[in-house]
Structure formats: C-alpha cells, structure tokens
C-alpha cells in the first residue's frame, strides 16, 4: 500500500507526464501541421556555442514556447509489423497507427502497407494518407527495397536508421515546392533550415567520419534508386548535421530535473526526427524547457520555470533521470554530442581541481 506522500508524488508525476498540446490552454493551437512559435522566443548567435534560443521578454513557467513539425521522421521500434508505436509515414499526419480494435475511444485506423512491400516499417494509417504521401515515399521506396536488409544485416539498426532518416530528409527536399516554406524574420524553414544546422566533418572524430564516408560510398551516392543529385561530400556533411541535431521521440517529457521517483523516466524511444527550429535549442543539465512529441509527431517545448528576458532557453539532450552524476552526464555528452558541458549546474558541481575550458565542438583525433 502506498503512503500518502507516495500517492501525491505519483499523482503529480502523472499530471506532468500527460502534458501535450491537447492540454495547453494559454494559446489557441492550430491542429494543422504548421509550426508555432512564442512571440518572445528569438534566436541569437553565441561566439562559442553558435545559434541559441533566447527569451526576448520574461516568460512564465508553464507557457508553451514552440510547436515544431518534423522535416523528416522515422519509426524506431523492435517489431514494426505489429507495433502500435509505428507512425503514419505521411509527413502531414505522423500519427501512431492504431488498429480499429485497439480502443473503442480511438479513431479507427487501418494499417496500410507499401504496395511494393519495401519494409514493414513503412505504413500509413489509412489509404488516403498513403495516396497523399505517394510522391515523397516514391523517392525512398526503391532505395529501401534495394538496401534496407543489407544495411541492417551488415551495419546494424542504428546505422540503418541514420541512413534512412537522411533518405527521408532528401525525400522531403525532393517534393518541397520552391517558395512554399518561406523563412520568417526569426527562423528559417524547409531545406534552408536544414542547411543551417550546426555540425560538419570537423566536429566529429576522424574514425567516425571515415565510417560514415564508407556508408555514403556504398549506399548513398546519387543514382536511379536515390536521385538526390548531391555530391558524396555534401551527403556526408548532411549526416554530420543530422547526427548533431536529430531528436529521439519518447512518450514522456525530457528535461525534468528532479523527481522523487527516478523510475519515472521518459519511456522507450519510438521514433527519431529532425526539427528545423527545435534543433536550435542548446543543452543544459538544468534546462528551463521540457520537451516531448505530441500525437502528430510535432515537438512541443514548454517552459519548466520562469525565464528572464535575455536568458537562453535550453533543453536537455538526454533523460536527466538516467545520467545524474556530473561525471556520467559529461561522459554521455562527450560520447554522443562531442562537447564538454559547462552549464551552470555542471560548473557548480565541479571540484576545484577540475579546470576544463569550454569547447562546444573540440577538435579531436581518432578515438579508436
């Protein structure tokens, strides 16, 4: 039997874990797949960290800051043929595919697979979504049929997912109408935004870049099965940007700093995506933003505390319930994102003998 304190903690956690755009009442949310930005959210350039999100005026705790639509997204599930977490492949939908018998309260959806049977990971929630997505999927279908099984067998799921996300980025680029995604004065949009993301071959270990170069030469050159028209060097640069900026999609929020029950983590990853505007946010181990995807795969930013005018708006790049100690956090960030964190929390936890200078993307020799 739970104590009253435990019950209160669980109830509070459950309330927190269900924040989505459906529960936010401080703005009117457009249900279309258009991005939304808080009027006080702007971007600036830091001399070391590069682009960053900044509050131009004070922002109160709990305010919706951003809803960003994915430029490209892929499912990340163990059994795509039967998993309820597979997302509709239509980039204008991105809902989880739920069978009509899954719940009486859900809108009936009928899983529609690719007529060419490229991979079981590709599916739509109905025939209308499949038809609407025909041009974009046509770009990736032949490539998936030709290479998916081979890449998964020889290189593993992670590298396959990485390359597939790149292919989907290129697919979106191929169907993007010129002038249809005009940049605002504050934020770029479309392919222009993807080109502006940070990351280059110089920011990654030489051994890692060599591996990616091999993958590009084997599977990603422009061809009849992948007609992107880019050079191998440009595709490699795109991989470097994607790996530095893509988001994992989890069922619960990322960025909760303190929980009395650390078992309430963000859950199991079910997708990966690139968001043109959300990717601008830098990391802090004491973030003032929590983020999670909504039911349409859009990334939602909400302020987790009051934010002052001129203050940087930061997210956490990882689950703060998983990496708690300073050494564990820094090791994870160095391995996954190639920088030494010098946020306020990390500096406050440093021992006097630690004297490391901040280099957001340090030059590195081979690490193998």
Automatic annotation (TrEMBL):
PROSITE patterns the record matches: SET
The record ties this protein, via CDD domains, to: SET_SMYD (cd20071)
TM helices/strands, residue ranges: none
Question: Domain of life of the organism in this record?
Answer: Eukaryota
A matching Pfam family: SET
In the UniProt record, the signal sequence range is none
Query: SET domain location, by residue?
Result: 37-318
Task: Please give the PANTHER family that the UniProt record associates with this protein.
Answer: HISTONE-LYSINE N-METHYLTRANSFERASE SMYD, SET DOMAIN-CONTAINING PROTEIN
Q: What is this protein called?
A: Putative set and mynd domain-containing protein
UniProt organism field: Aspergillus steynii IBT 23096
